[in-house]
Specification:
mainly alpha
Length: 166
């Protein structure tokens, strides 16, 4: 659940190859991600049990997320979800897009070099797509012509994002 702590420990034990935890881009991305995740709770909180969790996990999810949101998840979805959430998040998504476009040799934040920042953002994109294809499409729509840089990153991260549900 706290992948940064895990990544730091792995990097400490196995420093080669590095995942560039000291990257200025990663620091910027880590400053943006909490704003994005907070802004998406009206979308994510109601969708996760439907899309990702088994039924046995639903009571815990609803109890903890209602407590965290301070309101019923249907109310949260009405007040903070849908297109209005994406509209509010657009400036933050634009910041991430600008970071991803800085090194035009792409597809990674560091051009041709994969780093932990790619897994942070790529993991987020995969998560949103698995929560709701419709919401993922909204995300891509607000990035406009720049959606291609996000898609290229997802393709490049393909070998690391394969699922083994066996």
């Amino acid at each position: 659940m706290d992948s940064r702590v895990i990544a730091t420990e792995i990097e400490k034990r196995h420093p080669k190859p590095t995942v560039y935890l000291d990257s200025p881009t990663l620091a910027k991305l880590e400053g943006i991600m909490p704003k994005i995740m907070l802004g998406l709770r009206g979308i994510v909180f109601p969708q996760v049990p439907i899309s990702l969790l088994n039924e046995a996990s639903h009571p815990h999810w609803y109890k903890t997320r209602v407590a965290r949101a301070g309101k019923d998840l249907d109310q949260l979805a009405k007040e903070e979800g849908g297109q209005q959430a994406w509209d509010k998040l657009k400036p933050h998504i634009d910041e991430v897009t600008a970071l991803l476009k800085e090194d035009e040799s792409g597809p990674y934040f560091m051009g041709k070099t994969v780093s932990y920042a790619d897994f942070v953002w790529g993991g987020f994109l995969i998560f949103i797509k698995r929560v709701s294809l419709e919401e993922f499409q909204r995300l891509m729509k607000i990035t406009g012509a720049d959606s291609e840089v996000h898609n290229k990153l997802m393709v490049a991260l393909g070998p690391w994002s394969l699922r083994d549900d066996s």
